[in-house]
Amino acid sequence: MVPIFVWWIGEGEVERDLVDHVRRHLARAFERPAVLWNGEERPRHAYDPRRKQHASGVILRWLLEAGPGGGKVLGVTDRDLFIPILTYVFGEAQLGGGAAVVSTARLGEDVERVGPRLLVERIAKEAVHEVGHAFGLVHCGTHGCVMARSPAVREVDEKTSELCGECRERLLELNGGA
Ligand SMILES: [Zn+2]
Ligand SMILES: [Zn+2]
Question: Is 13 a catalytic residue?
Fold first, then answer.
């Protein structure tokens, strides 16, 4: 069974609680081992000085080269991510591919008021969402499903961290026991 590797690729100190929470959510959602991967390298070449953000597409390609291989790899960062057509993204993945990335940079809204747990819950949802894409899942219209589109924090808060029944079935069809 293809494992999921979770790799902190941020510039700040690794947030162990956050990364471990993400790891546990992934293991549960995809019913397979999810393990932490520690590498010292960082995708600094993905930084665009004009936008002062990191290009998520560049990070995805880098994760495939620099990562452990033999599974899906999720990079978790504190750097702000973008794709050329959007102001920012919470994350990105290759549909049916080997890599996904998520960022805490834009998920901090209201965290000071509500508490740090909110950030942890949000990043876990976005992690399951992007890794879902890496397993071939597309966006889902079922209320509460983690594969719902979430362009803003409000939509992230409205969904759960779980795959709906249809997405679970689809996941099995796409990946079988692999
Ligand atoms: Zn998506
Ligand atoms: Zn769904």
Answer: no
